[in-house]
Amino acid sequence: MPRAVVITGPSGVGKGTLIRSLRERMPDLQLSISATTRMPRAGETQGVDYHFMSEEEFERHVCDGDFVEYADYAGARYGTLRSELQTRRASGKPVLLEIEVQGARQVRKTMPEAVQVFIAPPSREALRARLVGRGLDTPEQVEARLSTAERELDAQGEFARVVVNDRLEDAVDELVWVVDAATAAE
User: Which of 1-5, 46-50, 74-78 has the highest mean pLDDT?
Assistant: First the structure.
């Protein structure tokens, strides 16, 4: 099976932007679409951005063992469906998983061959500015995300590869190098 590459880090660190840029430079990469119980944001599409589910549907998948990983994050649940990952890997191309730190830990146990990359902000203050500046969350949600981010930033030592997202192009260059090296080893 082709290599899986886990991209993780705190909310607001720029994982989505980095992945979009990475896929522009490496169009063969497949992106696993996560499931979530949170409501869609403006412009998000079912099955493209996320598999949006009710709490009941998500819990049914948990009970049935359908997730490779799942986590509670900032008042919502997120997870990677086994079927989604298998479909993407069947393409024969490397698969990217954009997941939370809790999920990355689970993947480390279930798929130890996966390459794991932690995306870090240049500073905690920069992370706060990004979360507030994107205007997607209420002030309470921003504070909840920052509280979780503090714990997640402390976990970056668990990851062999850490990319600091200070300058977008530099961070993308580093991610291309990491993914290239990981997929060349297959």
Answer: 46-50
